[in-house]
Amino acid sequence: MSSNKEINPASSARGSELASNFTVSLNFDKRLYKQDILVSIAHAKMLGKQEIISDEDSKLIVSGLIKIQKEIESDKFPWDEKLEDIHMNIESRLFEIIGNQAGKLHTARSRNDQVATDIRLWIKDACINLIENSKKLQLSLLSLAKNNLNVSLPGYTHLQKAQPILLSHHFLAYFEMFQRDIERWKKTYNSADVMPLGSGAISGVPYNIDRKYVAEELGFSFISNNSIDAVSDRDFIVEFISASSICMSHLSKLSEEIVIWSSDEFNFISLSDEYTSGSSIMPQKRNPDFAELIRGKTGRVYGDLIGILTVLKGLPLSYNRDLQEDKESTFDAYDTTLACIKSANGIVKNLIINDKIMKTSAEKGFILATDIADYLTKKGLPFRQSHIIMTKLSNHCKKLGKDLSEISVEEYKSISKFFSDDVKNISVNQSINSREIKGGTSLNQIKNAIKNANITINQKWPK
Hints:
With 463 residues, the chain is mainly alpha-helical. The chain has three domains: 93 residues, Fumarase/aspartase (N-terminal domain) (Fumarase C, Chain B, domain 1), CATH 1.10.275; 227 residues, Fumarase C, Chain A, domain 2 (Up-down Bundle); 97 residues, Orthogonal Bundle (Ribonucleotide Reductase Protein R1, domain 1), CATH 1.10.40.30. The chain contains 18 helices and eight strands. A two-stranded antiparallel ribbon has the order 1-2. Helix 3 runs antiparallel to helix 4 and helix 14 crosses helix 15. It is elongated, with a radius of gyration of 30 Å. The chain starts with 16 loop residues before the first helix and ends in a 6-residue tail after the last helix.
């Protein structure tokens, strides 16, 4: 094997420790090793196929890269921070394994298009993983909806009791939120599914390369149209962190309700000990720490989004070293969102529903006021007049300290002559099942919604 001391990239490592420490990215971009090796293998195969390098050298490079991957995955790889990043570490090690032929791998490519290709592959995998785990959370929500089909509870607006709903309807609302998150990650996947390799540093490469072949090897559906844009585009990363941020807002909303509902004041649900923790001083307490942490970590992902937007906002074309800062926020957003989805799924799967308390709460107060106003409207009154009558009736009840269910027909009639004995037929169940429109909370509509949700969740993707 020939000497490689002079052309091995290790020989050009930074002399200044400060400079090396400042520019090094190895501590976070080493997680791109699989993608970097995949890209290099595909590139080496193409170079051999196109006779840009010999077939023998192509095969030698591929075998060396496979060996490097095995070393990394068995924790035997000799990482060197002086080489700054994952790409130079792999290339330097390739020199050590196969000699000067390793230098032929970098023919017809730049680190600019190489890293852009690596991160696109990584984003595609990340989208698939987040979608798969979001579907698991959706399945847990669907299971709760199916198992609590007839459980009623108060629906809230402004955190005030509004109208009675089915608990299954409430859980299906979160199913819809997470489905939108899934659709956003699918769009992000499509945005990332464009191969920049072949763009070189900025202007393309002066070799007869086969970009279509490499794209097929790496599973890309499209090839970039403009080499300048290809090496500098990070829109797909913004889309990825944005989609993750929106998902975190949904997880935070769910967590907030879990915290409220599990409190003594509500007591709608009980949480598994696995997803709570005790107090260091108050022995009677079980705190909803997992839900609170999900709620708290939402701001962290929002910060990742602001970070990447700030990095990109003033960059001239094309590649700039600022883009090294895209990875930490991307990895953090992914790690945080994935951990929160998994934790939320654990919480939801182990929820205990206190259905009797929910039902009792739904039957108290003035939650049927709108239904009674609708009752008057169906008797011919304009709704605004019905609204005024119900305001008077509610104020009457409050003065007496009574719920609507506790006043007599005579008291109803004393407020308005339009009330009849049948006003007493209005109940929580009647209210719920009167919402017989698509998207409503009636039992029939919920059964249809569950059926449609099952169809949605079983759709195969990517096709």
